[in-house]
C-alpha cells in the first residue's frame, strides 16, 4: 500500500506538459481505470491520458502538495493542495485548491480514482461574470 501511495506522489510530482505523454500515467493507472472529479468522468487509460494532456497543455504551472495519506491494501485517501497557474484565470496568478483523492487499486495499478474538491474555488470563482454571480448567491445565503 505504501508503495502505491509513494508512486502516486512521485508521478504527480513528475507530471508536467513535457512529461504528460510519457509512460508515467500508464505505469500508475490500469487500462480500465475510471477517473472522476467534480467536472468529469473518464473511463479507460487512453481517455485519461488525453484528459491529462489537455489539462497540462492549458496551464503554465501545476503542483500537488500531498498533506496526508491513509490507506490499506486495496484503497487509499490522499489529501492535497493543488497549486496551478492558468493564464486566463485569476489574472494569471496562482490558484490553490485543497482536495482529496480516493483511489482503489489492484495488481499495483489504480483502477478507480475519484477527486473531491470545490470546483468553484478552482475554476468558476475566477471567471469575472461567474464570480459576480457566485458572490451574489453567497451574500444572499448569508
UniProtKB/TrEMBL annotation:
InterPro entries: NTF2-like_dom_sf, SnoaL-like. SUPFAM superfamilies: NTF2-like (SSF54427). Residues 9-113 form the SnoaL-like domain. It comes from the Bacteria. This is Transcriptional regulator. It comes from Reinekea forsetii.
Amino acid at each position: 500500500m505504501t508503495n502505491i501511495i509513494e508512486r502516486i506522489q512521485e508521478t504527480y510530482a513528475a507530471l508536467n506538459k513535457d512529461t504528460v505523454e510519457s509512460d508515467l500515467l500508464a505505469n500508475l493507472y490500469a487500462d480500465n481505470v475510471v477517473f472522476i472529479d467534480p467536472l468529469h468522468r473518464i473511463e479507460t487509460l487512453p481517455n485519461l491520458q488525453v484528459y491529462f494532456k489537455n489539462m497540462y497543455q492549458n496551464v503554465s504551472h501545476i503542483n500537488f502538495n500531498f498533506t496526508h495519506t491513509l490507506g490499506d491494501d486495496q484503497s487509499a485517501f490522499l489529501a492535497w493542495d493543488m497549486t496551478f497557474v492558468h493564464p486566463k484565470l485569476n489574472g494569471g496568478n496562482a490558484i490553490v485548491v485543497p482536495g482529496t483523492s480516493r483511489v482503489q487499486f489492484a495488481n499495483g495499478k489504480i483502477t478507480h480514482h475519484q477527486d473531491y474538491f470545490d470546483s468553484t474555488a478552482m475554476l468558476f470563482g475566477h471567471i469575472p461574470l461567474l464570480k459576480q454571480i457566485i458572490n451574489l448567491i453567497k451574500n444572499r445565503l448569508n
